[in-house]
Amino acid sequence: MATYDEGNIFAKILCGEIPCDKVYEDDYALAFNDINPQAPVHILVIPKGKYVSIADFGAQATSEEITGFYRAVAQIAEEHSLSEGGFRTIANTGLNGGQEVPHFHVHLLGGRALGPML
Ligand code: 5GP
């Protein structure tokens, strides 16, 4: 598993060093609009803990962190009226997954029919 890079851009957003367009925050998660949206709604949800990827999060996070994080994802989807029409979540992971920022994040995409997955 890759070592967590303390200088990654989402770590800087988490500590307030870099601003973000915040849409949600609780003890477990921070969510903000993607700087380069690919859909009418494109929110990034990140855990508060230092996890490189979904694999790292799933293997190392506590049950409380995992539950809290996914409850936040569900709540954000509900708050943005995505649940009824449907939406997509993506967690790009590592080189083959095209992950650019090495702090686990879920892309929450919706607001229109998104078409086939790739
Ligand atoms: P990845 O390819 O790692 O799954 O996605 C990283 C996402 O982070 C991209 O969709 C990119 O647009 C977004 N992003 C990169 N830098 C920033 C930033 O400084 N602020 C925000 N809000 N989004 C960012």
The CATH homology group name: HIT-like
Number of helices: 4
Largest sheet geometry = 5 strands, antiparallel
What is the CATH class? Alpha Beta
Q: How many domains would you count in the coordinates?
A: 1
Low-confidence stretches: none
Ligands, ions, cofactors: guanosine-5'-monophosphate
How large is the radius of gyration? Answer: 14 Å
Return the CATH topology.
HIT family, subunit A
Average pLDDT: 96
**Strand percent estimate:** 15-25%
CATH architectural arrangement: 2-Layer Sandwich
Record field, number of beta strands:
5
- Helical amount among residues, as a percent range? 25-40%
Strand order of the largest sheet: 1-2-3-5-4
Task: Give me the strand/helix succession.
Answer: HEEEHHEHE
Derived from helix and strand composition plus strand pairing, the structural class reads alpha+beta
What's the shape? globular
Walk me through this protein's architecture.
With 118 residues, the protein is an alpha+beta fold. The chain has one domain (20-110): 2-Layer Sandwich (HIT family, subunit A), CATH 3.30.428. Helix content is 29%, strand content 20%. It has 4 helices and 5 strands. The protein has a 5-stranded antiparallel sheet, with helices on one face. It is globular and about 35 Å long. It binds guanosine-5'-monophosphate. Guanosine-5'-monophosphate (5GP) binds at residues 9, 20, 32, 34-36, 44, 92, 98-101.
